[in-house]
Amino acid sequence: MMHIEILINDTIITPPVRAAHSDVGALAEFTGFVRGEEAGRPISALVYEAYQPMAETVMRRLLTELAAAHPCNSVRVQHRIGIIRVGEAAIHIAVHAKHRAPAFALLAAFMDRLKQDVPIWKTDTFSA
Amino acid sequence: MMHIEILINDTIITPPVRAAHSDVGALAEFTGFVRGEEAGRPISALVYEAYQPMAETVMRRLLTELAAAHPCNSVRVQHRIGIIRVGEAAIHIAVHAKHRAPAFALLAAFMDRLKQDVPIWKTDTFSA
Questions:
Q1: How many helices and strands, by DSSP H and E, does chain B display?
Q2: Residue A90: inside a domain
Q3: Cys-Cys link to A51, which of A106, A119, A128, B128 (CB 3.0-4.6 A)?
Q4: How far is A54 from chain B (nearest CA, A)?
Q5: pLDDT digits over A5-33, tens only?
Q6: In angstroms, how far is CA A48 from the centroid of its own chain?
Q7: Interface test with A, best of B33, B107, B122 (most A CBs within 10 A)
Q8: How many angstroms separate the CA of residue A17 from the nearest CA in chain B?
């Protein structure tokens, strides 16, 4: 049973890098930053909003589904909401697994599905 | 031109998570830990040795080759050598890119090639 932790709030805290226990050989992580342009226009920040209870429920269901194909020990998803400036992290995901292949596969598949399935959206941009 | 940094020594320092500049939207990281068993036998540590100048040269060549297919902004590889206890990190790789797809692809391909091409080897184990 994969441990799932989902945090949606106004900060991202990068957890210390360590193996959860002696059977964990791999930690795959992804951090997504706000870039200085959006659809070709320069921006200084994005505003993320979430329909929060639904976003957590959908992420948990998605991760559970993906874990059946790619068995991992734990996943921790942090998604910031609110104003996020260029260069700041909007999302951080950490996947612990025995081996790297399922960790990479789950991480990549989750990111692909996140934008289509999960009710988190960018509502506005500020031009630089 | 992708920036490449390779560090082979007796410590791993996880760099702070941040975008290198405003065009970087993705950071993909991998950490490999020593697990509590090796080939079915319990262990308490592994000893890594490297033929160091060659290891750095081969890694740099490999990363440059992979960057042609998967364009990224920078790669930082840290590989520990010496005695590494169970639960401790042996390798940490950080790839910064504009988008996540090339970052994931370069990271996974590098790990696949590392073990076959780079002269770093586990010389011994200590049973627990």
A1: 2, 8
A2: yes
A3: A119
A4: 25
A5: 999 988 888 777 777 788 999 999 999 99
A6: 13
A7: B33
A8: 8
Closest CA to B92 of B19, B2, B29: B29
- Domains: count for chain B: 1
Q: What is the pLDDT of residues B15-54, one digit of tens each?
A: 777 777 889 999 999 999 999 988 888 898 999 999 999 9
| Residue span of the structural domain in which A41 resides | 3-10+24-127
- Are B24 and B97 contacting, i.e. CB atoms less than 8 angstroms apart? yes
Q: How far apart are CA A48 and CA B98, in angstroms?
A: 20
Q: What's the average model confidence in pLDDT over B90-97?
A: 96
CA distance B112 to chain A (A): 10
Cβ distance of A100 and B32 shorter than 8 Å: yes
**What is the rounded CA–CA span in Å between residue B72 and residue B25?**
11
The first and second tokens of residue A83, run together, are 């104003």
**A61-106: per-residue pLDDT in tens?**
999 999 999 999 999 999 999 999 999 999 999 999 999 999 999 9
Residue A15 lies in a domain: no
In a domain, A16, yes or no: no
Lookup result for tokens 């068993």: B37
Average predicted confidence (pLDDT) for chain A: 91
Position B32: which residue type? Answer: G
Here the CATH number for the domain that contains residue A123 is 3.90.1170.40
Residues of chain B in Cβ contact (below 8 Å) with chain A:
14, 17-19, 21-37, 86-89, 92, 98, 100, 104, 107-108, 111
pLDDT score recorded for residue B128: 46
For the entire predicted model, the pTM comes to: 0.93
In angstroms, the CA A67 to CA A77 distance is 14
